[in-house]
Write a structure and sequence with these properties.
- This protein is 16% helix and 19% strand.
- It is an alpha/beta fold and 761 residues long.
- The strands form 7 sheets. The protein has a 22-stranded parallel sheet, with no helix packed on it. The chain has a 10-stranded parallel sheet with strand order 9-11-13-15-17-19-21-23-25-27, with no helix packed on it.
- A hairpin with a 5-residue loop joins strand 42 and strand 43.
- The longest helix has 37 residues.
- The radius of gyration is 36 Å and the shape is globular.
Length: 761
């Protein structure tokens, strides 16, 4: 006997081993051996056990090992062997044959079982085998374990499989088997493991489990099975795992779970089950994982579920359950519960304000429930919470400052709500996002049930095997958040995803973002940001998605780092931005320089620019006042009030500015262009001349400019200034109130603009 497993051996298998002619057992598994098998091994006629698994071996097998006439256990799994399956076999005393996780090909050969009448364990999984199982006919009497998973085998299960009475473990997952499961399944009374997931089995499951008293693991997920649950499953008293997810099963979940006291994992997700949850499920006191997501279940969570003291993972998402408050009152007694997913239930209910328990909760998801209310303070007592999803609800109020005290939180999704107020500075105190070493690595999904992250409702979602693999994220998009971005955000060095899009955030982009070296996604789109894009963001080498679209940014777009890879859509809706990706900066600067006078005319032009700022400020103030007045009338009056107010808005603006004699600029004939002239020539910004405006900039019709604006004031030398005034007016009249700039934002932007122009002039 020579056992050298896990010794870190490298290189080739020495040929000298062939001279140990009395050797009966050789174990070289779990090393780094490579190359082919030496032909001298064939001379070891007394060899009974050969284990070469988990190495990097390659080359031929059949000819080299053909002389092992005494071999009983041959394990060459997890190597790099490539050979036709037909060449293998011819071992008369073979009991264990394991060639899994290689690249053997062809159909399953009959030579293995025909030459060895006593084979008990046959593992051919994770290869490239094709065809049906006819070649295993001679194995039926003695076979105890048959593993064929992850190949390309097909056809229906042959009848002789159901006559393999000694079979204890049968695994054929991830193949192309089809047809119905036979009621002859009841003959396999010794069966402990039945794994048939990832195939194309269809039809009703046979009600043939009463005789399978030893069955511990039944996994048939991801097939096309239909019909009700077989009632005889209740006789499988030793069953630990029942996984039937992702089929087309129907009817109520009406098994008598009292007869299944050993059940640890029950996954019936993604079927068409209906009706209430069964009370008898609470008799499975050892139940740790329960997933009934994506069904048509209704009613309340039974009070008896409070007895599930071992429950760790519960997912009831995408059903029609009601009474969230009652559900939490029940589930708070499940003191070991670490993952609770209730997404798309309890539609339109109020989120409970007072809840106890859940001290061990690590993942909580109430997404897409249209819940009302505010972010509840009881979440602060969930000290171990790492993932919190309250997205796609109707929550109002502000983001509470105590969120920063949740030391383990690294994934926060408050997107698509109606949250207001500023981003609290305390959000930058999240320890798990400040340092990766602070994150808790122990979060796992039970029983291999995948968890999904969805960035929008239509997406299928990204699957993760464990919650700790989620990208550290803060998702606050599509709310009504205002204020500025706190510069302290740069402390969150382990943050990977930050989405602040579609809010009312103003101010500039802090330079501190350059310190967030792990950022992969950064989205500021559809806000009211101004200033420039900090060139320091070029340091973010992992950034794969970036968007500042539809803001008020100006200046040159950075060109270093990842910025060269971002599409132009990442910057659109910012007329003041320039760069290689969109409009070249030299072209814009050249346009700005045209017609700029010198000397005393330059001073006169600066006075005109300041006049523009004052005029636009007064105009915007008036518009805001009208909007506020309209909102107050909307609260008191009916829909007709809104319609009247909306239609008169441009008229009131024009009336307010028509008498203004403030000069915008002079045309080529030295005629002053006033605000009143601009309003008159565009017919109060009539939509006949302006196709659309707002986040994607001013879009003019196909008419020539002189046909859009009165020729009396049109001057090609000043077309850029003229259309900039139109663009500002468009932003003020945007149909989306969230995109209309605030007065202080516009004033600060225009003041900054005037300083830039003043320097140029």
């Amino acid at each position: 006997m020579l056992i050298l497993s896990k010794k870190g051996l490298q290189g080739l298998i020495p040929r000298s081993l062939g001279y140990l002619d009395q050797l009966k057992s050789l174990d070289l598994s779990c090393n780094h051996l490579q190359g082919g098998l030496p032909s001298e091994l064939s001379s070891l006629k007394w060899m009974e056990v050969l284990d070469l698994s988990h190495n990097l071996l390659s080359g031929p097998v059949s000819g080299v090992l053909s002389g092992l006439i005494s071999i009983q256990s041959l394990n060459i799994s997890s190597n790099l062997f490539k050979e036709d399956m037909f060449e293998l076999g011819g071992y008369p005393n073979l009991v264990v044959f394991n060639i899994s996780n290689n690249s053997f090909s062809g159909p399953v050969t009959s030579q293995i079982c025909s030459s060895s009448k006593g084979i008990q364990i046959l593992d051919l999984s994770m290869n490239h085998l094709v065809g049906n199982l006819a070649g295993l006919y001679n194995c039926s009497k003695s076979l105890q374990q048959l593993h064929l998973g992850s190949n390309s085998l097909s056809g229906s299960l042959p009848d002789f499989i159901y006559s393999t009475l000694a079979l204890q473990h049968f695994s054929i997952s991830n193949n192309n088997f089809s047809g119905r499961l036979s009621k002859e399944l009841s003959k396999l009374s010794s069966l402990k493991t039945l794994v048939i997931y990832g195939n194309q089995f269809s039809g009703h499951m046979p009600d043939a489990f009463a005789n399978l008293a030893h069955l511990e693991h039944f996994d048939a997920h991801s097939n096309m099975l239909s019909g009700p649950l077989p009632s005889t499953l209740s006789f499988c008293s030793k069953l630990h795992v029942l996984d039937l997810r992702n089929n087309s099963l129907t009817g109520p979940v009406d098994l008598n779970f009292t007869g299944m006291p050993s059940l640890c994992t029950l996954d019936l997700a993604a079927n068409h089950f209906s009706g209430p949850l069964p009370n008898s499920l609470s008799d499975c006191r050892g139940l740790e994982t329960l997933s009934l997501a994506k069904n048509e279940l209704t009613g309340k969570i039974p009070e008896s579920f409070a007895k599930l003291s071992s429950l760790l993972f519960l997912s009831l998402s995408n059903n029609s359950f009601v009474d969230l408050s009652g559900a939490l009152d029940v589930l708070q007694h499940c003191q070991n519960l670490s993952t609770l997913i209730l997404t798309k239930n309890f539609v339109g209910e109020e989120i409970p304000r007072h809840v106890s328990g859940f001290q061990n909760l690590m993942v909580l998801a109430f997404g897409n429930c249209a819940l009302k209310g505010h972010i509840p303070v009881w979440l602060l007592r969930c000290r171990k919470l790492e993932v919190l999803d309250l997205s796609w609800n109707r929550l109002g109020g502000s983001i509470p400052s105590w969120i920063g005290q949740m030391e383990s939180l690294f994934y926060l999704d408050f997107s698509n709500n109606s949250l207001t107020g500023e981003i609290p500075t305390s959000l930058t105190d999240l320890k798990s996002l400040i340092s990766a070493n602070s994150s808790s690595p122990h979060l796992t999904a039970s029983a291999g049930i995948p968890l999904y992250v969805k960035r929008n409702q239509s997406a299928s979602g990204l699957p993760y095997k464990q919650a700790s693999s989620f990208p550290p994220s803060i998702l606050l998009s599509n709310n009504r958040i205002n204020g500025t971005i706190p510069p302290e955000v740069g402390r969150l060095k382990d943050l990977h995803v930050l989405d602040l899009s579609r809010n009312n955030i103003t101010g500039t982009i802090p330079n501190s973002f350059s310190q967030m070296e792990n950022l992969e996604i950064l989205d500021f789109s559809s806000n009211n940001l101004y200033g420039s894009i900090p060139s320091s963001l070029e340091k973010l080498t992992f950034l794969s998605k970036f968007s500042v679209a539809n803001n008020h940014l100006r200046g040159q777009i950075p060109t270093g780092g990842q910025f060269y890879s971002f599409p132009s859509s990442s910057f659109e809706g910012n007329p003041g931005l320039c760069g290689v990706i969109i409009s070249p900066c030299n072209a814009i600067n050249g346009t700005q320089q045209q017609g700029i006078p010198s000397g005393s005319e330059s001073r006169f032009r600066r006075i005109n620019i300041l006049s523009i700022i004052i005029t636009i400020g007064v105009g915007f103030a008036l518009v805001i006042a009208i909007v506020l007045h309209k909102m107050s009338r909307r609260n008191l009056g009916g829909p007709s009030d809104d319609l009247e107010e909306e239609g008169s808005l441009p008229h009131r603006l024009s009336e307010a500015l028509r008498s203004s004699k403030l000069v915008l600029f002079q045309n080529s004939d030295c005629k002053d262009l006033t605000v009143a002239d601009l309003l008159k020539s565009t017919n109060n910004f009539n939509q006949e001349n302006i196709i659309g405006c707002g986040g994607f900039g001013l879009m003019r019709s196909e008419k020539r400019e002189a046909e859009i604006i009165d020729s009396a004031i049109w001057d090609k030398d000043h077309q850029k200034q003229l259309f900039e005034m139109l663009e500002i007016a468009c932003r003020c009249l945007d149909q989306d109130p969230r995109r209309r700039p605030l007065i202080e934002e516009v004033v600060s932007w225009l003041v900054l603009d005037s300083k830039v122009l003043d320097n140029e002039l």
